[in-house]
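Q: Given only this backbone (176 positions), what sequence would you predict?
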């Protein structure tokens, strides 16, 4: 029987693998323009916010994009498909290996988190390709995630997208 340190390491490695797969699937969904499936990555009572590093550091609650449940994310997709007018574009995400920051999986960590909830962070870059083929580094930053592992698949209970720059393109239409 492995010692507690080995068992804890195995649990942590399993959590890293689950979070890595969740982030990869999340990015692939957006990059493939399968936005109707995007809300399914979240719990029903999720929180999703895109903000800047400055606002996050100052604790300012306002986000560039904010939703406090999955229904709001679903509404956003409907608006993107039917109401919003924006130049055709595609994203390509590059996401770092996540770091598990705390929660039940770490054997403690963050007070108040259930055994099957973890917090993780991962860096990201998003390259945007416009309809004419031009490409640019559209966004870089950090995903700050609270992930619920209790269901049949991991889901984001909270996803805060912290942009490194305060300069944000007005074409922030597609989720990051």
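A: Predicted residues:
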């Amino acid at each position: 029987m492995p010692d507690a340190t080995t068992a804890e390491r195995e649990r942590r490695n399993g959590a890293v693998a689950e979070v890595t797969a969740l982030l990869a699937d999340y990015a692939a969904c957006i990059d493939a323009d399968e936005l109707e499936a995007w809300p399914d990555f979240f719990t029903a009572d999720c929180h999703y916010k895109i903000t800047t590093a400055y606002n996050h550091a100052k604790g300012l609650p306002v986000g560039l994009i904010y939703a406090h449940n999955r229904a709001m994310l679903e509404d956003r997709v409907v608006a993107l498909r039917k109401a919003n007018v924006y130049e055709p574009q595609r994203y390509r995400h590059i996401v770092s290996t996540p770091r598990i920051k705390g929660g039940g999986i770490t054997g403690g960590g963050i007070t108040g988190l259930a055994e099957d909830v973890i917090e993780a962070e991962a860096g990201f870059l998003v390259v945007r390709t416009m309809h004419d083929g031009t490409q640019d580094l559209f966004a870089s930053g950090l995903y700050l995630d609270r992930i619920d592992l209790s269901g049949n698949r991991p889901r984001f209970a909270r996803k805060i997208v912290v942009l490194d720059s305060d300069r944000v393109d007005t074409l922030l239409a597609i989720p990051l």
